[in-house]
Each structure stands twice: as structure tokens, then as C-alpha cells.
Q: What sequence folds into this?
């Protein structure tokens, strides 16, 4: 089938494109290359360099007539959303609405939406957190993701446009940009390979850093393939289901890089940034039960693969 992937030149989106093409699908990529990279684009995909907020997006839908839209294009930084909430809303909300309007007009059957389990639940009292837990977003980024989910439900109700929402944990792997809080694995690896110190943000009562649920990108691709035909009008947490503290993550990467510089043995502590939450870990039982999805790549294996990739690629 023909699938249009927004953000298909980005970190997660490009891996999803690869997975779809490998599965035999016809893929169209839409990306403005603001954070995505041309070299990430699968050569078998048809590429349009365009912003998802552009009026010209409709012409692409008219020409390509995709059956499925996979929406990964986004402003992904929590601190950026705090500093510039208008820009965040323009990309993450207005951009989505522009896509949804085109979906309705040109007969798209389903949209797969990349949401954020790592941010949308806020400081959840249920831990690990299930999809039933009421979201408590604590940043404009998380607010925009939750608002987008409500828009998807409206378009299903009003226009019968099916959707599947994937609430991601902290995703890592090859091609990740070493910027922002979402890219902490890439940031630590790049710094260790370059001999630079790394910063570990933490709350005063938690000196070992924040707890996060790290999931390898190949497992995320599996989920995006499964929901092409399953899980319509449902929300699924996609993560590994186990928390890891930032200090532990850094130590594992330090050992994998085999850095002999003792000054880099520990990260430099720093106070939390606006929008940071203390802990996040997802309950993934629903995805296991309804999709037959499970994460197969352990943190140790995933970090090893990621370090190997960055050791041979310049980002």
C-alpha cells in the first residue's frame, strides 16, 4: 500500500520508512529538513521537501493519494517548547491539522500518530504508567501532543478517519541527533567519542539523575508496522517498560566507548531544566496484548549497536 511518512528524513521517521519499504510498501516522504537529514532518506522512497504547515502539502496528497499517513514530523524539544510555545504549537498542532484536512479531502484511511508517553503523563502517580492514567502534561510540548490526540478523535468522530496513537518512551539508536533532552544517548556518545564532558540534569533529591524508559528504534519500527492493519482508534504505550537512571545510562556508555580519560568517568551535575520531570516509565501490556508487540532489544544490546554506529558515522 502507499504510505506517506511525515518527518521521514528524521531519526525515528527514517527508520520507519526503511521498515515499510522492506515490508514491500510504496513510501512517500515529506520533510522540511529542519532537523532531518537528506542522507537518512531511503533511496526507494519518493521525497518532497516541504513543511507540514505549508498550503502546498495538499497538492502532494492530491498527486500521491496515500492510503495511510504516518505522522512523525514534529518540534521535539521540551525546553524549546517552554522557550517558544507559539512555535511549538504552530508545528505540532497547526501542522497536524493541515495534515488532517488533507487526509479527509483525499480519502486517507488511517493516520498513525507519534505521541509522547515520556512527557504526556507528567509526574504520574501510577508507575509504570498505563494508557488509562489521565495525562498531566507539564510542558507546552506535552500539551501539544495531548491536544493533537483530541484532534485525532474529533476527526474520527466527524469524518470517520481512523487513527492509531503511539505514545513513545525515550527512543534511541542510530541517526539520532545529539541535541535536546530526547537525544541524551546520542549526546553522551558524541561527547565520549570527542573527549568532551557531559551534563547530567537532576533534581536535588535525586543525585543519580532522572529515571527514563529507553526503547531501541528497531522495536519502534515493529510497532509502526503492526498498526498498519491493527489497533485502529486506540492508544498504545511503546517503550521497554523498565526505568534507567541517567547516571547508570552514562556509565554503560562510558564502558562501551572504552574511554580511557578519567576526567570523563562521571557526568557534570546540573539542575533540572524547565519542563523536566523526575521519572517516566511506561506500562506496555496493552501493546503486548492487542498488537502482539514486545521490545526485543535490551538496553545493553541497543546501546552497543548505537555506539557502534556513531563510531563509524559523523553526525
A:
Amino acid at each position: 500500500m502507499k504510505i506517506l511518512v511525515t518527518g521521514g528524513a528524521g531519526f525515528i521517521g527514517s527508520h520507519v520508512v526503511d521498515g515499510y519499504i522492506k515490508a514491500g510498501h510504496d513510501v512517500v516522504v515529506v520533510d522540511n529538513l529542519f532537523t532531518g537529514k537528506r542522507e537518512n532518506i531511503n533511496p526507494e522512497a519518493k521525497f518532497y521537501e516541504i513543511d507540514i504547515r505549508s498550503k502546498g502539502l495538499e497538492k502532494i496528497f492530491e498527486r500521491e493519494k496515500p492510503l495511510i499517513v504516518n505522522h512523525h514530523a514534529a518540534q521535539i524539544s521540551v525546553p524549546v517548547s517552554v522557550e517558544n510555545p507559539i512555535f511549538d504549537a504552530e508545528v505540532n498542532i497547526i501542522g497536524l491539522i493541515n495534515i488532517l484536512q488533507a487526509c479527509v479531502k483525499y480519502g486517507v484511511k488511517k493516520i498513525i500518530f507519534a505521541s509522547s508517553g515520556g512527557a504526556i503523563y507528567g509526574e504520574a502517580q501510577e508507575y509504570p504508567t498505563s494508557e488509562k492514567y489521565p495525562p498531566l502534561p507539564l510542558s507546552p510540548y506535552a500539551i501539544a501532543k495531548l491536544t493533537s490526540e483530541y484532534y485525532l478523535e474529533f476527526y474520527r468522530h466527524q469524518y470517520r478517519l481512523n487513527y492509531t496513537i503511539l505514545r513513545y518512551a525515550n527512543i534511541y539508536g542510530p541517526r539520532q541527533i545529539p541535541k535536546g533532552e530526547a537525544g541524551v544517548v546520542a549526546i553522551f556518545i558524541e561527547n565520549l567519542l570527542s573527549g568532551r564532558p557531559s551534563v547530567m540534569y537532576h533534581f536535588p533529591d535525586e543525585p543519580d539523575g532522572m529515571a527514563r524508559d529507553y526503547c531501541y528504534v528497531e522495536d519502534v519500527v515493529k510497532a509502526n508496522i503492526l498498526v498498519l492493519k491493527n489497533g485502529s482508534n486506540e492508544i498504545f504505550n511503546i517503550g521497554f517498560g523498565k526505568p534507567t537512571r541517567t547516571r547508570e545510562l552514562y556509565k554503560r556508555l562510558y564502558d562501551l566507548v572504552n574511554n580511557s580519560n578519567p576526567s570523563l568517568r562521571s557526568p557534570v551535575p546540573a539542575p533540572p531544566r524547565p519542563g523536566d520531570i523526575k521519572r517516566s516509565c511506561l506500562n506496555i501490556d496493552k501493546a503486548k496484548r492487542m498488537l502482539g508487540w514486545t521490545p526485543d532489544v535490551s538496553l545493553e544490546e541497543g546501546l552497543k549497536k548505537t555506539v557502534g554506529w556513531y563510531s563509524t558515522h559523523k553526525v
